[in-house]
């Protein structure tokens, strides 16, 4: 128990290159999650994020089995999953069922590939729960390049995408290409989710992509303020989770989820108290 609260050891570890690299990766992931999160929440895509993360696991497992880069494999798996989900779901009423079908098949395939992989068990475990030691130069280059692309594309489509998210029927009547935007946004979410698999792990990347935005939605209805708060909450969760995980050497995802849930709980209590005061 003493090691869990060993601040001296944590401070020493913060000077290591791989830890600094992990913190930089976490900061980029926090920015992506915070910017995309409010749109994910407004479009009711939390289950889609979960499904995409599990299929990123399948891509990472395939890369692990074939001896390829795990990050590239996870990215490819997430993009394929996003395209499949976007093309198969034409009506919102069938969205959850299609995600469930694709998720079950992809996750089963990923489990089989992990079983076939005879390498180090730590590599398998890292896909599930994340690991900060995997942040080498290639990982950082992939993350940075993909993040720039995601933010650039989002900047181009943000206004019509926000319109389609808030009122899809009116947006469709005004000629906004809602179906195309849905596919594009699904791919952007897939890329961001895949980038979080190596750090947070496929099982709990949902906490970073959805929880900060859900917390922000509890305290404001403004899209701009919600985005700013979501970025702040995601940064605190991602960076803080890595810092707290250093001394005990525990999986990063456990601390990321704990911090994000605590933030959500505080925002939920604040929102409830404000509604009570206004009633």
UniProtKB/TrEMBL annotation:
Transmembrane stretches, start-end: 18-41, 61-85, 97-117, 137-158, 179-197, 228-246, 252-271
Membrane topology: Multi-pass membrane protein
GO term, biological process aspect, one: transmembrane transport
Entry annotated with the keyword Transmembrane: yes
Main location: membrane
Subcellular location: Cell membrane; Membrane
InterPro entries: ABC_BtuC-like, ABC_TroCD
Keywords annotated in UniProt: Membrane, Transmembrane, Transmembrane helix, Transport
GO cellular component: ATP-binding cassette (ABC) transporter complex
UniProt cross-references to Pfam families, sorted A to Z: ABC-3
KW Ribosomal protein (keyword) present: no
Superkingdom per UniProt: Bacteria
Similarity remark: Belongs to the ABC-3 integral membrane protein family.
UniProt protein name: Zinc ABC transporter, inner membrane permease protein ZnuB
Native species: Actinokineospora spheciospongiae
